[in-house]
Amino acid sequence: MIKNKLTWAVTTATLSTFLLTGCGSDSDDNGPVTADPNLTREHSERTFTPAADISFTASANASAAYYGTYEGDRGPAVYSVEFPTDWNGGVVMYTHGYAGTGSTLPVTVPGDAWRETVLAAGYAWAASSYSANYYDVRAAIEDTNKLANEMMTYLEQDWSVQYDAPTQFLISGYSMGGHTAAAAVDRENMERTNYPVAYEGAAPFCQAEQYQFQWLGDYTRLAQAFAGYGYLPHSEFDELIGTFAGPFIATSGPIIQNLFNLEEDGTPDWSSPANINGERLMAAAEILSGGDRPIFEQGFATFYNDIVMGTGGRDGTINGILGLENYGNEGKVYRWTTADEPTAAELAFNEQVPRQSADPKANALRTDGVRWLPLVNGEFDVPVLTLHTLGDFYVPFKHQQLYRERAMENGNADLLVQRAIRDASHCGFSPVETQTALVDWLTWVNGGAKPAGDVVLDPAVVAAENYGCEYTSPDRTGLPACPSVGTAD
Description:
It comes from Marinobacter daqiaonensis. This protein folds into two domains: 267 residues, 3-Layer(aba) Sandwich (Rossmann fold), CATH 3.40.50; 139 residues, no CATH class. It is an alpha/beta fold. Helix 2 runs parallel beside helix 14, helix 3 crosses helix 4 and helix 6 packs antiparallel against helix 9. The strands form four sheets. It has an eight-stranded mixed beta sheet, sandwiched between helices. A two-stranded parallel sheet has the order 1-5. The protein has 15 helices and 14 strands. Helix content is 29%, strand content 15%. The protein starts with 11 loop residues before the first helix and ends in a 26-residue tail after the last helix.
């Protein structure tokens, strides 16, 4: 059994997302509304400063590493660039995950598996700190694109070195950086960015997008209602969930006590629902996060449940990224069964769930660049390859299903390859999985064979005990081993 406080030895990509909070609409488009130029938001008043030390050590497989600062969307940003010993002229723009709410902007260096694979393939990589922290995907896109366009100028100005102009740009990142990479090749954002870049491919890993904030808002409201507090406004959630020590629940409040058994220290045992309402919450969460699939239960039992609960009763401005409420659940029918029609118990329960409406102007189109929260609409015309862990309870597998549906609606599903990984954490990919995905993607982008991937929309396929086995390497200790080779499309 995976405990909710199991291991703090997680990847950098995972660490970068612990404090991501907020709620939002899962609408693919907030309509043709254009943003009110007079609308203010808390985030606009925040300031950020590059770290005092932005240096980093070059890889043994690199010929040179460079770093510096430049003017980004919100102010100064930090750049980092590394060239391989035999550069092929291409650059993969790396987009980092959520970096918290601090005011300091550190240098960005990708994890070893990603970094060394890209360099070994002959590509340079470049990354921006972005000119803001918080969940500012607008700054992430605009600053990454500006760096792609002007990096050679920065290197000549700051380091007195000259390189030929890159012959190809690609983009890849994790979590919030995956949101950035997917959005950067989406048509709306390509047309509205201040710094257009003709990316020839994207590899968004464990990516979040607009549904992330619907998920965070839905799950906490369901917990409140199942625990018997649906009659209270959701703003009371923080007082009812308990106390936190960092991202962990330190003391379980009445919501948890009414739904789950507790550990000896009073913290929640997510693997042990205390009653039928706890079981129903778990079943409803499974549906909302991607449906019946291997590793869901193990992911539910991890400390990511603490983190999702930690979003609490916060408003739907995503910590001030937006200026108006962007979460809405009016008319949404929540289920814990999978029959065609809701049961009488489900219909009665839905009457108890706190409801609210999203403001259509909260994330409207802008005339000065991409939206404050750029959308992933699935409208792209370049090869895209994704990885996602099946047990990720923080940024759930549902994102992959929505991405596939949107790509199908836009007629470009043949350009999307998705791979499911049997792991219970967020962005918990092994070096082999990362390397294989990147090599297959780079081969495809450059005219090679289209890689194989997993089916994500067939419930029977996704629910099979061997789902995700095709691209998982190695099997994870403590998780069900693959009984046989999985099914790929």
